[in-house]
Amino acid sequence: IIDLTEAGSQPMRLGFDGPILTYNGEIYNFKELRQALESLGHTDWRGHSDTEVILHVYDQWGIDGLKRLEGIFAFALWDPAYQRLVLMRDRLGVKPLFYGECQYGLAFGSEIKAVLAAGGVDTDLDDQAFSEYLWYGNTYGDRTFYKGVRALEPGHWLIIENNRQTLKPWWRL
Known about the structure:
Elements: E1 12-13, E2 20-27, H1 30-39, H2 50-65, E3 71-79, E4 84-89, E5 98-102, E6 105-109, H3 112-117, H4 127-136, E7 150-151, E8 156-161, E9 164-169
Helix pairs in contact: 1-2
């Protein structure tokens, strides 16, 4: 919503072979982050989007630099240099992000139906989630109605690198 030109289209890649990002949301402090990055020598901007700022933040400060982001967002970042996938969700969980193992590996999306469309996802009913929904009107934690689909919790990231998955909070009160 910030840069509707071709320069702001997604998925977006940093450089010719750099990290790739697909993202939903808005980074409220992107102007401040961009100024800080420019003072550190980042001058190869192709547009004015907050999406591009996320890529430069990652390029400059690495994975921990992503903790500087303030806003509402959910994104997937693939770094081919490290063979690393980062799924990350904002502190309050305004933007949803679901994931699950499918026939091709890991599927993710902002809606459960996107994960299911990948095929091979365990669609058996998660009895605990269903019970919670009947009792409380919603499910808790990362549960969904499907055993094979999980919701990335607010303020969490899932990092897949070297055939290892790390799921942990990146932000706490």
